[in-house]
Amino acid sequence: MLIDTHVHLNADQFAEDAEETIERAREAGVEKMVVVGFDTKTINLAMDLVEKHEDLYAAVGWHPVDAVDCDDEKLAWIEELAGHPKVVAIGETGLDYHWDKSPADVQKDIFRKQLHLARRVQLPIIIHDREAHEDIVEVLQEENAGDIGGIMHCFQGDQKMAEACLDMNFYISFGGPVTFKNAKLPKEVAVTIPDDRLLVETDAPFLAPHPYRGKRNEPAYVKLVAEQLAELRGVSYETLAGQTTANAEALFQFDRR
Ligand SMILES: [Zn+2]
Ligand SMILES: [Zn+2]
């Protein structure tokens, strides 16, 4: 069995067939899925989905690309939702320097506020990092994020960054890119992550693994990520699935409330 620790079943791409997609994931052996909401619309849809399905859980936060649209009222709403029994994490938040909709200083401010929020509600935080490796580590260190902990989602940093994040109690999660044929760095880093710090995800509908690269991703494909990691790490698929599932259970404590 597997846990997809990061999936956007609340995305427009699943508006027509979310139910069938969830069913295919179950058939592929995905026992739980964490649906990530990152703005008003996707948070509301994530909450609807987790109310309806026992095996779905939610993460709620504000995406760095849209940081300019976030305000104290929205953060207060996220904090209130954090008390819902099926909300298991804050995020995704972080920094994204690929798009220029939100200036870096605004992104950092909203990121820090969500770290404070996660600390208050005592939930792990899910970090999105795109082209912002050094600043992410700097903010996490300045905010003493080690005692919040959480996930570096779809990790694409180098060995040094992985070590800095592991030192701060973070789990390292790999998605579709680790299966890409030319993905030298993620493959190298994936081999070095300790057994008890490794997670798998899809980030569906984005970043579909090989051989579906460029197509719509879906949570059933988390199996392809797990198979790739097992091969790289020289363990059986069953061992890899067991380790990553136990790690997700330990981090999210799905049934804590
Ligand atoms: Zn992300
Ligand atoms: Zn995401």
Describe the protein.
This protein is an alpha/beta fold. The protein has one domain (2-252): Metal-dependent hydrolases (TIM Barrel). It has nine helices and eight strands. The chain has helices at 18-27, 40-52, 72-81, 104-121, 133-142, 159-167, 184-192, 222-233, 237-252, and strands at 2-7, 30-37, 56-60, 87-96, 125-130, 150-152, 170-174, 198-200. Helix 8 (222-233) crosses helix 9 (237-252). The longest helix is centred in the middle third of the chain and has 18 residues, at 104-121. The model has no long low-confidence stretch (mean pLDDT 97). Bound molecules: zinc ion (ZN) (2 copies). One zinc ion (ZN) binds next to loops.
Bound molecules: zinc ion
User: Can you list the strand order of the major beta sheet?
Assistant: 1-2-3-4-5-6-7-8
Number of helices: 9
Along the chain, the helix and strand elements come as: EHEHEHEHEHEHEHEHH
How is the quaternary structure best described?
single chain
Query: Which bin fits the share of residues in helices?
Result: 40-55%
- For this structure, the CATH topology is TIM Barrel
Tell me the name of the CATH class. Alpha Beta
Number of DSSP-assigned strands: 8
What is the average of the pLDDT values?
97
The CATH homologous superfamily is named Metal-dependent hydrolases
Architecture (CATH level 2) name: Alpha-Beta Barrel
As a whole number of angstroms, the C-alpha radius of gyration is 17 Å
First-to-last CA distance: 23 Å
Largest sheet: 8 strands, parallel
Number of domains: 1
Structural class: alpha/beta
